[in-house]
Amino acid sequence: MSDHEIFSPPPPAAVLEAALYADDLDLAEAFYGGVLGLEKVTRHGNRHVFFRAGRMIVLIFNPAQTRLPTGNPDLPVPPHGADGPGHLCFATSAAELTAWRDRLDAAGYPVEADFHWPNGARSIYFRDPAGNSLEMAEPRLWFDDA
Amino acid sequence: MSDHEIFSPPPPAAVLEAALYADDLDLAEAFYGGVLGLEKVTRHGNRHVFFRAGRMIVLIFNPAQTRLPTGNPDLPVPPHGADGPGHLCFATSAAELTAWRDRLDAAGYPVEADFHWPNGARSIYFRDPAGNSLEMAEPRLWFDDA
């Protein structure tokens, strides 16, 4: 009997990292760090820049670099990398959403869509400098107890 | 004086949704729901299938569909969609990681990399049916108090 028959692991109960791709990491760092105000965790040259959002890490990768083998036998991170606009959604309160709309407009990142879902939760959408579709939404969009 | 000068919103403190892309949503649903055991939140035809992981929603989109306008003036979700392997990381305990390695192997999704980071946290990497690079990692990889 192998281990997996003895201990059936529960479904993953949390996401630790979410990734987006950007060709220009300087622009990405200025946006996620400067405009959104996220805490920068680390930057590795032109390969990646990582930010913290609560208990999550938001990974911004340059796909031209992450498609290559790492070249470090101790850290054999498998290659990955996507082209085209991805998506990520931050949780924000209703009051913060309204303030973010103004702040993003003022910073030159105008809100592209702003609407309420059938259950009443509001979302705003905007683009990062790489064209990724970012959203801020009230968490009650998905969680009744939020 | 505009609102954004009165109330400067704090940086987003949580990620609500992370997205990956897959051309075949039936395979994606079988993998994320069946193999990983995530709770399915909703599926919309061949456009998307969404899962819950704790306080996060994992969105699997068919990029051929999400690149098109929604056609619903009440829900003008902006287009997005990426090609090529993306990345997402789940938080799991050390014991769960070992059990997941066995379970993924048995399910035909062999672990592609398995190593410890310089701070001692362990990660395993595997692929979803669309080729996205998935990771399970001990959260102390990023959070000293985890």
List the helices and strands and how they pair.
The structure is a homodimer of 146-residue chains.
Chain A: H1 3-6, E1 15-21, H2 25-35, E2 39-44, E3 48-53, E4 56-61, H3 63-66, E5 87-91, H4 94-106, E6 113-116, E7 122-127, E8 133-137
Parallel strand pairs in A: 1-4, 5-8
Antiparallel strand pairs in A: 2-3, 3-4, 6-7, 7-8
Structure description:
The structure is a homodimer of 146-residue chains. By secondary structure, chain A is of the alpha/beta class. Chain A has 2 domains: 1-68, Roll (2,3-Dihydroxybiphenyl 1,2-Dioxygenase, domain 1); 84-146, 2,3-Dihydroxybiphenyl 1,2-Dioxygenase, domain 1. Chain A has 4 helices and 8 strands. The first copy, chain A, has helices at 3-6, 25-35, 63-66, 94-106, and strands spanning 15-21, 39-44, 48-53, 56-61, 87-91, 113-116, 122-127, 133-137. In chain A, the strands form 2 sheets. Chain A has a 4-stranded mixed sheet. The longest helix of chain A is centred in the C-terminal third of the chain and has 13 residues, at 94-106. Chains A and B meet through strand 1, strand 4, strand 5, helix 4 and strand 8 of A and strand 1, strand 4, strand 5, helix 4 and strand 8 of B.
Described by strand count, sense and barrel closure, the largest sheet of chain A is: 4 strands, mixed
State the distance separating the first and last CA atoms of chain A.
42 Å
Helical segment tally of chain A? Answer: 4
Say what the CATH topology of the largest domain in chain A is: 2,3-Dihydroxybiphenyl 1,2-Dioxygenase, domain 1
User: What order do the SSEs of chain A take from the amino end to the carboxyl end, as H and E?
Assistant: HEHEEEHEHEEE
CATH architecture of the largest domain in chain A: Roll
Number of beta-strand segments of chain A: 8
The largest sheet of chain A has its strands arranged as 1-4-3-2
